[in-house]
Amino acid sequence: MVGPPMNYIAGVGRGAAGFTTRSDVGPAIGCSKHEMVDEETYERNQKFDDFEGSDIGLFASAEYGEDDKAADAIWESVDKRMESRRKDRKEARFKQDMAKYRASNPSIAEDFMDFKRKLYELTEQDWDIPEVGDYSLRNKKRRFESFVPVPDTLLQKANREQNHVVALDPNGVATRGTETPVTDLTAVGEGRGTVLSLKLDKASDSVLGLTVVNPEGYLTDLKSVKISSDVEISDIKKARLLLKSVTRSNPRHPHGWIAAARLEEAVGRIQGARKLIKEGSEQCPKSEDVWSEACRLASPNEAKAVIARGVREIPNSVKLWMEAARLENDDLNKSRVLRKGLEHIPDSLRLWKAIVELSNEEDARVLLCRAVECCPLHVELWLALARLETYDNAKKVLNKAREKLGKEPTIWIAASKVEEANGKTDMVGKIIERGIRTLQREGLVIDREAWMKEAEAAERAGSVETCQAIIRNTIGIGVEEQDRKRTWVADADECKNRGSMETARAIYSHALSVFFNKKSIWIKAAELEKSHGSRESLDALLRRAVTYIPQAEVLWLMGAKEKGLAGDVPAARAILEEAHAAIPHSQEIWLAAFKLEFENHEPERARMLLAKARERVGTQKVWMKSAIVERELGNVAEERRLLDEGLKLFPSYFKLWLMLGRLEERFDRLEQAKKGYQSGLKLCPSCIPLWLSLANVEEKMNGLSKARTVLIIARKKNPGNPEIWLAAVRAELRHGNKKEADILMAKALQECPNSGILWAESVEMVPHPQRKTKCMDALKKCDDDPHVIATMAKLFWHDGKVGKARTWLNKAVTRASDNGISLNFSFQGFGEIPPSDQKHLEESSD
Fold first, then answer.
1. Shortest CA distance to 694 belongs to which of 734, 727, 647, 645?
2. Out of 47, 61, 85, 518, which residue is the most buried by the measure of CB atoms under 10 Å away?
C-alpha cells in the first residue's frame, strides 16, 4: 500500500482548507513590537482618505506643500476645460436623444390631438349623454326612524317666536283687498344687523362716552343712499341718531350738518334737510360749504336770500359770489353780482374771467385794464388784453407784462404772434431770439420739448412764422453735436405723426441748413412736401437739393417723375437732360428718360434713347428693357436679335433667358423654349423661375411624369424653396392626384414649416369643415404672412362674414402692400353676393 505524497491535504482540490488546533501549535505567546507596528500599518492602509483617496499608505511619509497645491490646481483647471468642451456635445446629444424619444413615444395628449380637433363637428344631440344614476344598495336601505314627542313648552315658545305683526299696504287697500301685499314688520325689526350698521360701527369709536365720526365720508356715501326696502328704515334711524350725536357733540363742525341734511334729503324729507342746514349755517356762519349746501337745498324763491346772507357773513368767498351769479337769470344782473364780488376780492382771477366772459369787446377791454392792475402776476389777463387791443397798444401791453413777468416765455411768443398777425414777419424771428436770450440771462432753463409744444400750438393757431422761428432758435438746445441729425429726424417724424406738418417742415428746413449734403434728409423733406405740400414747394425743394448734391440720382428722378405726373413732359425732359449732364453714366436716368417717352407714346424716341444707353451704359437691365420695347411693339425679329446679343454679353442674367423661352412659347415652339430654359439653368442653376418654366414646358410636351422629374431635380439643387414645392403640389392637383398632392404638401411643410404660401395652399386643399382648424395651425406658424392672412379673409368671405373678411384683408394689405394675392382678392368678389343673402351678410358683418 502506497502512502499519500508529502504536504498532501485531503479535500484541498474540492475547496476544503486545513485547520490547526492548540495542540498542534502549543501554548499562546505574546506578539513582538515589530509585529504590532506592522498590524497598525496594515490597518492604516485600509483607511480611505477623501483627499488622497486610497493612496495614503503609499504617500504617508510625504508632505503636501505649495508645489503640490499648484500642480493640483493646474490639473483641476485642465479637467474643467475638458469637461466644458465635452458639455456642448453632451447637451446636443441629449437633446437629440430626447427628440427621438418623444417622436417614438408621443404623449397621450398628442395621440388624442386629432380626436380633440374633431370634437367641434359634434352636434348638440351628440353631446346629450344620459345620466348614469345612482343604483348603489346603500341608498335603497331603509333606515329606522324614531319619533320622540315634543314638550308643550317648546311648542308654545316656537309659536310665540313665529307670530308676525302684519299691516296692509295702502296700494292693496286701493284695489279693495285683491292682491294685497303683506309687509312683515318683524323682519323690519330684525334688519338691525345689516350692512349700514356695520359701516357705522366701523366709522364710530366710543371714547369717554363720546362718539367720534368722520362726517366727510358721509358726504360721498349719502349721495348714493336709496330706500329700496322697508328693512332700511331702521338703518336710516340709526344713521340719523348717529349724525345727531355728531352735531350735538361738535356743533361747530360744518360737515356733520351737511351730512345730516343730505341724509334727510335722501329719504325724501326736504323740509327737514332745510331746517338742519339752516341750523348749521347759524352754528357755522363762516363755512362756505354750509352756505353753498343751504343754497342748493333752498327753494328757488329763497335761494337768493340764503346766498345773500352767506356773502354777508363771508364776503371774501369766491365760491359764494360765483354761486350768487349763477342764480341770476340775465347777464346784466350776473355782471352786477360779480362787480360787487370784485369790490371785496379785487385779486380774484376767477371772478375777473367770469365777468369778462359776460361783457362785450369794449367793456372787456376796460375790465381787463383794471384786472391787470389788480392781478399783475396772471399772464392770462395780460394776453387777453393784448388780443383785444390795437397793434400799437398791444405792444405796449406786452411790454408792461414783460416788466411784471420777466420769466414768462408765453409773453415773447404772444409778441411774435402779434407781429406776424400785422404782417411784420421780419420781426418774428428777432423777437423769439431776443426772448430766449433774455430768459437765459434771467436764469430760466430752456426746455426744448416745451418750446416744441409751443411751436405746435402756434401752428394750430395759424402763426406759421412764429412756429418756424421757435424751431430755429430752440431745436438745437441740449442736443450733442454727434446726435443732431438722428434727433432732429426723429423729432420731425413725431411731429408728422401728431399732424404738425409745419413744425416738421421747419425742423427739416433747419436740419438741411446744417446738413445740406445729407441725401436722406432731402428725401424725407421731399416726401413731406409730396404728401402735405404743393407741387411748387416740392419742385423748389428738389431744385435746392440737386444744387447741393448733384450726384444724387434719386432726387433728379423724383423731380422728373413729379413733372411727368403733372403732365409737364417738356419740364420732365429738361430735368432728365440736366441729370444726364450731371451723371452721364447713370443707368436709372437713361431708363427714366426711356420710360417717359414710351409712356407718352413716343416709341421712336424711346428706341433711340435705349440705343444710346446700350452704347454708353450697356448694362443688362438696359438690354432687357430694349427687348421689352420691341416685344410691346411687335418686332419679333428685333426682339430675338436683342436677346441673343444680350445673352452673349450677359450669359448669367436669368431674365434674358426667361424672355427668350417665353418668346418661343408664344409661337408654340416648345422644343426651342425647352432648350432655352435648359441653357439658362446651366448658367443659373439657382433661378427658380427658370425651373418652373421648364417644368411647365415639360408638362405641356411630355405630361406630368417629366414635369415631376424636373421639379425633383430642382428641389435637390435648391433645397428648402417653397415655390418649387408649391409648383409640384399644384401639378399633381391639376392632374387629379389628390393623394400624391397631400403627401407632397406634408413633405413640403416639414422642409419649409414657416412658408406662408405653402400653408395657404394647404388650407385650400383640405375640406371646408377642416379649414378653420388648418388656418389656426397656419397662423401659429406664420401669423404675419400676407398669404395666410388673405386665405383667412377668403375663409370668412365664403362663410358670409363680410366684416371680418374686410378686417383680415386690410391686415394682409398692411403687411405687404405689393402682395398681388391679397390685393387682387380684396378688390374682387364684392359684387358676387346673392341678393337673398344680403341681409344675412350685413348681420354677420355687424
1. 727
2. 518
